[in-house]
Amino acid sequence: MSKKHEPELQPIRQDALIELALELNRLASGVLKEVRKASALKGLSNLTAMRPLQEMLIDQLSNHLHKQPQPDDETTVIPGYL
């Protein structure tokens, strides 16, 4: 079985990440608006448009996190985690 070769992820600028997050937020707000209006097709359209943006943000932020130096101390608490 051969492993699929994936190209190395090229990081994008911080301002572009912010724009992606803002667009994702706009689409999510649109979903809420359309659900309240019982407009399933428009809500589904917004949801469908969110997936590629979400995947791109997850990839970029995960890549950034993995490139950060890891703490040596196992007792280090990461903010936001129990």
Strand and helix layout:
Blueprint lengths: L13 H23 L3 H28 L15
Helix pairs in contact: 1-2
Commentary on this structure:
This protein has 82 residues and is mainly α. Helices cover 62% and strands 0% of the residues. It has a domain at 14-64. It has 2 helices and no strands. It is elongated and about 50 Å long.
Class of secondary structure makeup? mainly alpha
- Please provide the ordered H/E string of secondary-structure elements: HH
Radius of gyration: 18 Å
For the termini, the CA-CA separation is: 39 Å
Helical coverage, percent range: 55-70%
Number of strands: 0
How much of the sequence is in beta strands?
Answer: under 5%
> What oligomeric state do these chains adopt?
single chain
What's this entry about, in short?
With 82 residues, the chain is an all-alpha fold. It has helices spanning 14-36, 40-67.
Key structural traits:
82 residues; 0% strand; mainly alpha; 2 helices
